[in-house]
Amino acid sequence: MNKWMDISQRLENQIPVWPGDTPFSYKVSWSKEDSGSVNVGQMTMSTHTGTHIDAPFHFDNDGKRVNELDINLYIGPALVIHVPNVTSIGVKELAGMDIENVTRLIIRTDAWQERQVFPDSIPPIEPALAAYLAELGVRLLGLDLPSVDPLDSKDLSAHHELNRYGIHILEGLVLDDVAPGDYELAALPLPLVEADGSPVRAVIRKLK
Ligand SMILES: N[C@@H](CC(=O)c1ccccc1NC=O)C(=O)O
Ligand SMILES: [Zn+2]
Ligand SMILES: [Zn+2]
Known about the structure:
- This protein has 208 residues and is of the alpha/beta class.
- The chain is built from four helices and eleven strands.
- Bound molecules: N'-Formylkynurenine and zinc ion (ZN) (2 copies).
């Protein structure tokens, strides 16, 4: 049986976050010495740090919250495709790829090279790709970038279009060692009530 591979960013205090967002921090707030029995940790983080999913509430006040999302979307067969050296990701960039009957599509762009710093720019998803992917059956779109929109976007049109077509978003994957092909994916959000996003532990296993 093929082994599960971790495709998540490590959550450590130096992890880069969206400019201006809450820094990640973990510390032991109550040590074994102090408590007499246990180490107890405390963490602070943004819901959009590292490998995470967006709930529609992130960009739409009337959108679903994390605890309302269907967990079945985040576990199951997934296709990984490689789309390097592009300035944006649209229908043209995916032309000729066999994406029939794919519920979960993961795009490896390799565009975020310097992982220790938040990128200056990324190849965004073109909003028009949403309708095309929905037609192919895609319900979850994952990628190795911190957003599906340009980093300076305020209208977040790719987020909105994907949501309009029922496509859920998984961001910040680490796909450096993942060859294109068919996999099983598990990237479950936490049961965060009312939340706009959630960190996930994303793992993948080669099918066949
Ligand atoms: N859309 C990005 C996050 C995002 O836009 C963001 C995250 C944290 C703090 C501010 C943000 N956007 C501000 O314009 C994402 O989906 O992760
Ligand atoms: Zn996000
Ligand atoms: Zn997003």
